[in-house]
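Minutes, project check-in

Agenda point 3 was the complex the collaborators sent over. CS summarized: two entities, 224 residues total, and the question is how they sit relative to each other. Sequences were read into the notes so everyone works from the same version.
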Amino acid sequence: KQEVTQIPAALSVPEGENLVLNCSFTDSAIYNLQWFRQDPGKGLTSLLLIQSSQREQTSGRLNASLDKSSGRSTLYIAASQPGDSATYLCAVSSSGGSNYKLTFGKGTLLTVNP
Amino acid sequence: KAGVTQTPRYLIKTRGQQVTLSCSPISGHRSVSWYQQTPGQGLQFLFEYFSETQRNKGNFPGRFSGRQFSNSRSEMNVSTLELGDSALYLCASSGYNEQFFGPGTRLTVL
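CS then shared the predicted structure for the full assembly.
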């Protein structure tokens, strides 16, 4: 059974700081990994999708890496802003089954202080 | 392109009642998945539909059911509601790999 863990559970940083969020998964047989952002009481916004054959993806100030063999992914946020404050969720879809069934971590609650 | 829409956005029900939630996927997307989000359990997969067929199901009791129509719109139904069913129910649509989520339906069971 796939399990996804995110560390830390919460993070508070001053504006402008670069930061790294961590995600680990127990079964390396994944199809892809997706990072999401969730604002309080809202749905999920897709940030980055990394296919299992890829090592990283970049979008603006965000960079996500994937090391499938070690079961790890990181989300790097450069020059953080107060608007980045949200919960960040990592999710994997496992190969061999439905590619559309995501297993989520519990998330990292990020607070960026002005 | 319009995003994933879910209706209603908020619902209050009492124990024992049943509820139906609706999801309209992004135009052209044929896969619709449903997830339950609670503070204790986080996000958990309920089921996934593709071309009106349920392709995958999570570990939820039979009180949770769903269906998909020919236009890819999907509904999920929860019968005999329990207090523990209070949650944010999220729908996601997918065209190929990436999943796009709707705003969710907040269900409160009293």
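Noted in discussion: The mean pLDDT of chain B is 94.
Follow-up: revisit at the next meeting once the mutant set is ready.
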